[in-house]
Amino acid sequence: MTEFDIVGTEAILEGRATDAYFERTETTLRHAGKNPRVVAEVTADQFPTGEFELLAGLEDAARLLAGRDVDVDAIPEGRLFDGGPVMRIEGPYLAFARFETSLLGFLSHASGIATAALETRLAAPDSTVLSFGARHVHPSIAAVVERSALLAGLDGFSHVAAGDLLGREASGTMPHALVICFGRDHQEDAWRAFDEAVPAGVPRIALCDTYSDEKEEVVRAVEALGDRLDGVRLDTTGSRRGDFRHIVREVRWELDARGYDDVDIFASGGLGPDDLRELRDVVDGFGVGGSISNADPVDFALDIVEVEGEPTAKRGKLSGVKEAYRTADGEHAVRLRGDDAPPNAEPLLEPLVRDGEVVAEFDLDEAAARATADAELTGFGRKPPAEGR
User: Fold this and answer.
1) Domain 9-113+298-378, CATH 3.20.140.10 — does that match?
2) Structure-model confidence comparison of residues 3 and 305, the more confident one
3) What is residue 67's predicted lDDT score, i.e. its pLDDT?
4) Average pLDDT over residues 248-277
5) Domain segments of the chain: what residues?
């Protein structure tokens, strides 16, 4: 037993993190002396739908399949996909049967988070955007959330332990709790104590909405810290927010009127892509939480499409081994393996595992660059800014 309700690494690698019917399938096939060589594909949609999603979770999937008697091809992390296979596994079925549950979990959850993070990133492409959503998920998967957010191009995240795993430093300054601990009407004491206590490399960003009007607290923060103030953060709850854009514009006016045009304004608190589009011209940076971390998983399925060299599939699935392509105009195309590729199209599936050895390399910054390039090519997240400014 573990201290918390967490399925550990050992159980995942041993295949115990599986659905019971896979164990019974293994028992039945071994009893019957059957272990056919198959090709299985992981797909979300059979045909392109025009709704692109961002692939993530592939590094964990590769680690799961390493050391097993399989060859695996996959679309690289950070590529957008739309129908057809994102992964293809070839080998004896019993070499990977019991790992299907964990494999789909790795890909489905991370890809859903990454897709939401990419939409968020593109909603405010010139702003600093941080992932603040770890508090909305089980702590055991916080690093999944933060890694997926980085893969989509976000600038940072808040979770300390996730940073330890990812080799990145967590971001963030102060919560309302810090200001409250100093008491009402003593906000300046909290801001000054923070300035005196934390390392010099941490930005001096004062939270300015705890007890009173945002504009008033911002002016007080400027008077308390002067040129040491790097920015202010507004985390006003929705029930007190009113016209948030107007509040931000008032704050900007007061800062500029006092000669603090270099003090940045950050916004957080229940924000989503539409909010970022509305505020991106008046806000310098955003902390985005639940709209990223609580994203719906991508509904991947794994299906056998070939047995001992013969095409096959269950009802509602497409038989035969397939290839996926990105066309020159940014479309997604699916063809049977061996058929001609679309003109000037780029094949998307690349070697991931060969004879049980992971042959792909994983780099978060490169994956983020792929996501940005694919989004531009496909038009993902392209939405006009809000009207009525």
Assistant:
1) yes
2) 305
3) 97
4) 96
5) 9-113+298-378, 126-293
Query: 126-293 is classed in which CATH architecture?
Result: Alpha-Beta Barrel (3.20)
- Over residues 62-77, the mean pLDDT reads 98
Q: Which residue has the tokens 């991370």?
A: 110
pLDDT band at 77 (very low <50, low <70, confident <90, very high): very high
What is the reported pLDDT for 237? 77
What integer pLDDT is reported at residue 56 of this predicted model? 98
- Pairwise CA distance, residues 371 & 279, whole Å: 23
Residue percentage of the chain with pLDDT more than 90: 93
Mean pLDDT of the chain: 95
CA angle (118 as vertex; 116, 120 as ends), nearest 5: 70
Least Cα distance to 100 among 15, 158, 167, 37 occurs for: 15
- Measured at the CA of 180, the angle between CA 164 and CA 154, to 5 degrees, comes to 35
- Cα–Cα distance between 232 and 323 in angstroms, integer? 50
Termini Cα distance of the chain: 57
Residue with token string 């096939």: 29
Q: Is 276 exposed, middle or buried (0-12, 13-18, 19+ CB in 10 A)?
A: buried
- ∠ Cα 157 287 190 (to 5°): 95
The predicted pLDDT at position 385 comes to 42
Domains 9-113+298-378 and 126-293 share a fold: no
